[in-house]
Fold:
Amino acid sequence: MDTQRLILFAAFMLVSMSLWQTWQIQTNPPPARSISDASGTNNKPAVPATDDLPSVPVSNNTAAEQSVSTPSVAQKVESGQRVSVKTDVFDIEIDTVGGDIRRVALLDYPVDVNHDPSPVVLMNDKTGVFFISQTGLLSASKESAYAPDHNVTYKSDTLNYELGKQSELNVPLTWTSEDGLFTLTKIYTFYPGKYEIGVEHKITNNSTIAWQGHLYRQLQRTNIEQASMFLQTYTGGMISNDGDGFEKIDFPEMLESNLSRANTGGWISMIQHYFMGAWIPPANSHENYYTRVTEKNSTDPHYIIGSISATQIVNPDSTTELKDRLFIGPKLQLEIKDLATGLDSTVDYGFLSVIAHPIYWLLDKIQSVVNNWGWSIIFLTIIIKALFYKLSATSYKSMAHMRKVTPRLKAIQEQFKDNSAEKNKAMMELYKKEKINPLGGCLPIVVQIPVFISLYWVLLESVEMRQADFMFWLNNLSAPDPYYVLPLIMGISMFIQQKLNPAPMDPVQAKVMMMLPIIFTVFFAFFPSGLVLYWVVNNLLSITQQWYITRSIENA
Structure:
């Protein structure tokens, strides 16, 4: 019936509006750069501006916690020697200047399974794709010589580390003050098969006075271009709130003002489609989250999000160890949710997360049995269709009854074409006589719209879908069908469904509705093939159910 078609069209418009709004958000920041690690201008190492150090939050409790000035021009971050670290999932470069993680390649994630088998480079210090992780110490005293921030140069025993068959790999970097009385050892710990990295700052104070200061951790990056103008996802900062909450801090917001917020433990992150970097301080630590932007007037601003610890005191002739965790890798939500409360919210399912998370959970359970994401989507579609079977049957019965009385409705329309009041009265009497609710098929469709949109975001956002193989030519369910076979099947199935529905009595509306399969086919040609697969299977099941119900009613 007409109302149902309009609601179905509205569902499609909701998805399109969601894409449009996300696209608008992404186009507001300054011009973005490509995420490629190709040759050319992107091979030039980027040098961050001089104001990329955080300021210590002002506190009324102690005079030691006063704002620390940013570095002078002579303190620019330069590149030193590179320490190479290889594990079964990482190929990492750590710069001896700052002990920064400057390049991270994810060995299990190719750029393009069909065209570029090289691993995704998530972190990089090249111009246009800048994304690095930094830590350092800020002294509470501006005059202190013991302030090894990310501008100092560390020493490493070797420039090459490899995990091999070890249970863990420790990579120590050491900085010692000129007088030899203060030492900071930064120790990265890597584990087999894990994207979680242990980070320990071992502070040794052999001077005669207590050292007071703060540990900071930060992620610094530039914006990147989205892979597709049709499928826009969020790229930017995200932080946890006290408790289970979280908040996005997007790039325009960072440009507008600097964040400064007290928090207990939690996490700070920079996320993008499928991947992220996140710092996870100790759960009970008192932190101050911050953001800032350097080179605001350039075409490639650097966005910084970080966390500063409360005042740390290292007494004379003593050592303090500060331990944090760093995550750099794919947003595998069943793994990252165990790292910190709410960290799995970085998998951005939007406002329908309450529905999307159970859908993903069920999809993952099916995948663990069938071991194929394409078949998992098919079985998930069957399960969802079974859950809505009764609702769908109600809708199809209503359509079948409407289809059966359509000739009589057209006769009424012709008879009272010049008298709308009498026409409506006669139609209502017919509905009453035949016990037809003209809106009876609407509710089932309305109920299913949130499920479809939630599944759309699950298939779009879940990194497990990225380049997942199905069968034949469909070896990347996160990309559009390269031969447009699924979109064409989907369009044909929609056309068949329209033939099973009662035809609109308005000729103009009938022509508009006949265009819907074509419109959907064109749009779905750019959608992930996994989503189109769901739609095709759902349509085929719907056609089967609707044909059976329609035939039963028409033959009654």
Q: What stands out?
A: The longest strand covers residues 318-330. The chain has a mean pLDDT of 79.
